[in-house]
Amino acid sequence: MLLQCIPHVLAMASDRNAEIRSKAELQLIEVNKQHPTFIQVCVNFNSAFYLFTFLFDLLCHITNILFLQDQRGIHQQKYALQ
Fold first, then answer.
1. Among residues 42, 30, 34, 36, which one has the least CA distance to residue 6?
2. Residue 15 pLDDT > 70, yes or no?
3. How many domains does the chain have?
């Protein structure tokens, strides 16, 4: 099995179909025998990637809220001066 397929096999291991799930688990067991730390590294990398993505989205959202609040403040000050 090619190591590039591991993310897909990991996804298949959580499939609703029990037959697909069991075949994926057997494949993962075989890969784990040949490359003992590879699956753990993939899982850690994916977790870090999703955490970074979540934090980046959160930062963008907060920045957007602050920008909109600043724009409202400028808009209110503009009409208060007239």
1. 42
2. yes
3. 2
Asked whether residue 41 is assigned to any structural domain, the reply reads: no
Q: Which domain holds residue 69?
A: 49-82
Which residue in 3, 50, 49 sits closest to 28, CA to CA? Answer: 3
Distance CA 2, CA 9 (A): 11
For residue range 41-79, what is the model confidence (pLDDT) as tens digits?
Answer: 666 666 677 777 778 888 888 888 877 777 777 656 655
d(Cα 66, Cα 82) in Å, to the nearest integer?
25
In a domain, 12, yes or no: yes
Considering the domain boundaries, does residue 16 fall inside one?
Answer: yes
